[in-house]
């Protein structure tokens, strides 16, 4: 279940009623198989456009996305997507278990296998006994857990997460961050996590990609050399964490002003 | 599991139920009493006392008459309604799904919708004859519009995030229609079906007033022409009762199918 994600020369121009908006100019980066990469950028920098192009939901104007060496032209079966708007991403007419199961039916899996996957995924996110509830009976954090369980049950090679915790409260958010770290380490899925929260990016990622303001290019790539065992209490107060977050913060400020990458940084690959 | 409410019944729920039943019955009882009192000493042939109407009722609406007149009416109504529901939802799903089709169809649909269906009865009689087919076609041709237009709106309004979620998980084609589009549009579809039900009852009666040999509408007109005024009034009462029963059945079905929708609305009202 490992696959790398390669984005090369990606460009997206929206054209409509005489207006041309270049959302993404030229993006090239790689997410290695089994890696957890966080993508940060100033708001409105085309993160969502990028992610939709990667998920095959939007066709790029030029350039391409390769998943495990295969070109992405529509939603690939080995990719799962977790949206920010959990309330609109879960189907309110289906119970939690049915929501998690729906994509598996499309995969033509047998009934027994589906049951196993659903139970296992719900167990992993700590919602083993919520299968019979409707999503709207759960709190926001729980709903996002259901969305994560749905993605896990799909057994993806790559998991794309679009600011998944932007709409939940701070404590729930910390729990969910640890959940993502744990699932990533347990399952070895390649994860690309988009966020606008610098601390979150540094805390979660093995690597942080900083995007420029729109039209988007990669402003900087930063390796996060924090220990693999991270926890909310100690990791966030370690000096290295502070250095890294300062670094990312500076890059984002530079990106907002439209400047090239701050000095003494290796240029983007 | 916290956050998952237990069943709806609570201690004291029976008292609440009784109170609600009382509310439901109160106004009809009052109106009935008023009618009774106001018409009690009426000597007007066209406004017979309610007492007379009620006394006539069991004589007119015997088991045989119910089978001969009420049953055909109801069957025709159900057939026309079902036809309209299937056609309206099916067509509405297609029109609602494709912007181009919608652009082409919308002006025509608006025009056709504006034609009052009773006007079509003589026209439909020309090619569908005067039998059951004509009546079913008349009922269906009137019922289809609210279903169709509401389905189009409901299908159009499918949330973009839900739509993308379905696509990203490979839920496409028939599965998408069945698991995402139709459930998402179902609150609007049901609004259309509800309107269609009252339109259907009206058209059922009207279609039976033209060239018919049985049915509720036919019977009422027969009584009126034969100056059997209290009998005519009982027919109107039966019609009212039929409408009431159908709307109760409709509400039961709706509660079942749209249970999730009411739950969702209640939960978002509690925590905005």
Characterize the structure shown:
The complex is a heterodimer of chains A (269) and B (272). Chain A has 269 residues and is of the alpha/beta class. Chain A is built from eight helices and ten strands. Chain A has a domain at 1-76 and 192-269: Rossmann fold (3-Layer(aba) Sandwich), CATH 3.40.50. Helix content of chain A is 35%, strand content 25%. In chain A, helix 3 runs parallel beside helix 5. Residues 264-269 of chain A have low confidence and may be disordered. Chain B is mostly helical and 272 residues long. In chain B, helix 3 (63-97) crosses helix 8. The chains are: A alpha/beta (269), B mainly alpha (272).
Rg from alpha-carbon coordinates of chain A: 19 Å
Strands across the major sheet of chain A, in which order? 5-4-1-2-10-9-3-8-7-6
Query: How many strands appear in the DSSP assignment of chain A?
Result: 10
CATH architecture classification of the domain at 1-76 and 192-269 in chain A: 3-Layer(aba) Sandwich
Anisotropy-based shape of chain A: globular
Write a compact overview of the structure shown.
The complex is a heterodimer of chains A (269) and B (272). With 269 residues, chain A is of the alpha/beta class.
């Amino acid at each position: 279940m490992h696959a790398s994600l390669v984005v090369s020369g990606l460009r997206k121009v929206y054209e409509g009623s005489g207006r041309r908006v270049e959302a993404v100019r030229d993006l090239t980066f790689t997410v290695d198989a089994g890696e957890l990469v966080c993508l940060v950028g100033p708001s409105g920098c085309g993160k969502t456009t990028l992610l939709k192009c990667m998920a095959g939901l939007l066709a790029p104007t030029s350039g391409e996305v390769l998943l495990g060496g295969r070109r992405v032209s529509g939603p690939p079966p080995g990719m799962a997507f977790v949206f920010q708007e959990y309330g609109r991403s879960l189907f309110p007419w289906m119970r939690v278990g049915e929501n998690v199961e729906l994509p598996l039916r499309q995969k033509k899996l047998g009934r027994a296998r589906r049951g196993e996957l659903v139970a296992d995924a719900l167990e992993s996110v700590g919602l083993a006994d919520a299968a019979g509830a409707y999503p709207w009976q759960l709190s926001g954090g729980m709903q996002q857990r259901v969305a994560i369980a749905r993605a896990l049950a799909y057994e993806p090679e790559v998991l794309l997460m679009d600011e998944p915790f932007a709409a939940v409260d701070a404590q729930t958010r910390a729990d969910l961050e640890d959940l993502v770290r744990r699932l990533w380490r347990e399952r070895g899925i390649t994860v690309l996590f988009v966020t606008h929260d610098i601390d979150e990016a540094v805390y979660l990622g093995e690597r942080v990609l900083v995007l420029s303001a729109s039209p988007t290019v990669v402003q900087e790539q930063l390796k996060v050399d924090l220990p693999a065992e991270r926890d909310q209490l100690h990791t966030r107060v370690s000096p290295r964490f502070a250095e890294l977050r300062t670094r990312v913060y500076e890059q984002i400020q530079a990106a907002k002003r439209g400047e090239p990458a701050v000095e003494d940084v290796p240029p983007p690959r | 599991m916290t956050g998952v409410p237990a069943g709806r019944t609570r201690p004291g729920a029976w008292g609440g139920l009784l109170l609600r039943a009382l509310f439901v019955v109160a106004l009809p009882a009052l109106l009935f009493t008023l009618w009774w009192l106001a018409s009690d000493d009426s000597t007007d042939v066209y406004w017979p006392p309610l007492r007379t109407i009620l006394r006539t009722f069991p004589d007119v609406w015997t088991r045989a008459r119910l089978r001969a007149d009420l049953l055909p009416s109801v069957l025709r109504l159900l057939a026309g309604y079902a036809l309209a529901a299937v056609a309206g939802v099916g067509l509405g799903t297609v029109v609602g799904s494709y912007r181009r089709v919608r652009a082409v169809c919308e002006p025509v649909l608006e025009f056709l919708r504006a034609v009052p269906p009773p006007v079509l009865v003589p026209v439909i009689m020309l090619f569908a004859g005067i039998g059951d087919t004509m009546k079913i076609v008349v009922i269906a041709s009137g019922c289809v519009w609210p279903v169709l237009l509401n389905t189009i709106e409901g299908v159009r309004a499918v949330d973009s995030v839900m739509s993308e979620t379905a696509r990203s998980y490979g839920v496409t084609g028939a599965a998408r229609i069945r698991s995402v589009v139709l459930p998402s549009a179902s609150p609007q579809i049901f609004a259309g079906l509800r309107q269609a039900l009252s339109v259907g009852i009206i058209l059922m009666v009207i279609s039976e007033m033209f060239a018919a040999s049985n049915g509720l509408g036919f019977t009422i007109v027969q009584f009126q022409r034969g100056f059997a005024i209290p009998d005519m009034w009982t027919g109107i009462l039966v019609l009212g009762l039929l409408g009431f029963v159908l709307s109760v059945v409709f509400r039961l079905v709706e509660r079942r199918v749209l249970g999730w929708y009411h739950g969702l609305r209640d939960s978002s009202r509690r925590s905005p």
